[in-house]
Structure formats: structure tokens, C-alpha cells
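Subject: sequence -> C-alpha cells, single chain

Hey, anyone have a minute? Need the predicted structure for the following. Not urgent.
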Amino acid sequence: MPRTKTAARATEQDAALARQIGGRLREARQRAGLTQQQLAGERYTKAYISALETGIARPSMVALNYLSDRLNLAPSHFLDEPTPAWTRLEVDMQLAAGDWDAAADGYARLLDDVIDDQARAEVLRGRAEALVRLDRGRDAVTAAAEAARTFASLGRVSDEALARYWLAYGLYLSDAEADARSMLHGLLERVRAGLKVEPEFEMRLLMALAAVESRSGNYTESLAHLEAARGMADDLDDRRRAMFLYNLAISYRETGDVEAAIRAGTHGLALLRAAGAGFESAQIENDLAMAYLATGDVARAEALAEEARAEFERAGDDRYLSAVLDTEAQVALARGEVAAAVDLARRARIMADATANRGVVLTAMLTEARALRAAGDPDAAEACYRDAAGLAREGRVGSRIREVLREWAGLRAEAGDHRGAYELTNEALAVN
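Reply:
Had a minute. Here:
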């Protein structure tokens, strides 16, 4: 019997619906952190879930109700006509692909549409993550806080916890380390008490706490968190394992174990280079340059910094480039090239200031002060240390305040101002 046009349309519609359900099912499963086997449970098979996700098969209402319940979603989520949720999949893919600007803009556009509370909270959480990746901490805090409140009101505790993770990250970027630390510790306690969020969430919390403690100058605590996370990193893919090793290398270097920092950083760099991750490789190269500089291997430090600078220049990322310029200033100072060190440190400070990179602004000030001191210009070095001390006090990071004040006291002692040196030393000793 010849197939009628009406039957053909019905078949096309069935196929389109199967693809729609499959795409939304895959998206929901991945957001829930489940494998196909885990979603299948004891009732279905991994092969059946795969067939559904690829649109080869269409679920019965019995199957759809079962799977919806396991994903904590209404069956209508998979059956409704295309809406902003379908567009949202595209934005989620931009986020997953690392196109942070496009993802942040896409989520902002989705918020203009009329969507229910749950969808709005999910969009806000995605936007918070994109904003964090763009170092827009204050904007991320606003989005993540609303998402967390909404998820809490809906009783979606796992989603609330993930939103609070990005809220803590935004607070960290906004220099509110104490609030970020408190929130992360609270989340860690909930996870260890049995809260299920997504795979590797506990490890992410430990790494975030390590970053907070490192910025606060609590390097031993930072390293302890990373060591606790080390065993959880074995199952990560190469890129994420490499970034874990990068954070571990930073903590090793800051606690003074330079050899361990070089081992961890070199391993991470090899993994990233094999994955073709040039930008992330450059981050590790710059940190490794600082580690090699601490060992006195100036040539190796210079080569690594040069490679990192080339990558950040290609990417047009001035925020990271400012850190490399400061590293190159320190290399120049180690070579005794004080004029070049002063110039590079000033360029690093200007670029870091323009990109709101307060950490590099401070380190560049210190590098410039050291170079001016080595050049025999104590007055200019004094002014530089004064600016650095002011910035360090604003940041309220005890270790950095003490570092600046002690160096400044040394400069004053060299100039014969022993009273001034005594006052600065006392202030450094009083810093918590």
C-alpha cells in the first residue's frame, strides 16, 4: 500500500518528537550527574537509555514517568513544544565548551522570557558559573544568591548546594574570603553528611577551600585541603586532573616545597599539552617559571615565562598577561637587569589594575620596589612600598601585609631610619 502524505508527516513528527525527548533526556541526565546505567536503574538497560537519547526510540508514558521521577522533573518537561528551554540547551553547550561570554549573554537573554521559578533558577545558576569564569565575582554573587534562594524554596537541596558553590566562588572573587570560606565549609559538612550533588563535588569544594586559604596566606591549610582531594582526583579526565595538579603546585610553592611544586606542575603541564589546552598550559608555565626562579634556575624560568606570554598574547587576555609580565620582571631582577625589571613591573601593575587583578597589582608593586631598591633609589622604593602596604591592608591578607611591612622595614633600616623600621616591624608582628 502506498504511504500517504499524512502518514509521512506523522512519521516525521514522531521522529522529531523522539529527538526532542532524547535531547532533553540527555541534558537532564548530565545535569543530574548520572550515567546512562544509573538513570536506567533496575527497570531498564543502558542500551535502552542510549536509544532514547539518540532519538532511535521513543519512550512509553510508563517509561517516561519512571525516568522523569528519577530526574526529579515533570514528564511535561520532555514533551512540551520547543520553548526557551530548548534554546537553553544551546546556551548550556556554550558554557560546557568554555565560551563564557556567549554563555553569560545567552543566559541573560533567557531571563527576559517568561519562565517558571525552577527554570529561572537553573538559568541564573548557569549565568553565575559563566560570570565566575569571566572573573565577574560581584555579578555572579547576585545571580547565584537568587538561584540558591529559589532552589531552597522549591525544596531542591542538591541544586541549591550547587548554586551556593558558585555563590561562594563569586564571594571569593569579590575579596570576601571569610564569607566564601564559611559557605564552603557548610557545603562540605552537608556533603559529608550524605548530601548528593554531582560527581566530584566534594573534591571541588576542597579545591575551592584550598584557593581561599591560599589567598588568605594560610598555605599549610591550603595544602591540607588539596592533599585530602588528591585521592579523589584519580578518576578525573586529563584536563581536570592537570588543573588539580596546577593548584597543588601553587600550594607546594607557597609552602616552600619548590621541588614538589615543580614535580606536580610538570606533570600537569604534560597532561595539558597532550590535550592541546594551550591557555591552561600557559597558566602552569607561568607558575612553574616562579618555582624554577626560586631554585635559581633563571634560564628555565625565563623560557617558561616567554612561552606563557606568547599564549596569553595570542588569546588577548591581559589579566593573565599581567602576571607573566611580573614574572618576567622578577627574572630580570634575578639577572641584575634592574632597569628592565622596573619597566616590566610597572607595565604589569598598569595592566593588572586595568583588569582588576588586585593580586598581581600587589606583587608587581613589590617587584618594582625591590628593583628600585637594587637600583639605589630608596625614595622611589619607599613610595612603592607605601602603596603596596596600603593595598595589602585593604586586602586584609595577613601574610601579604607582613611580607610588605618587613621588606619596607628593611629598606628603612638600610637608610638609617631605625625608628621607622621598628614601627613597621612591630606592625608586622601584630598582624594576625
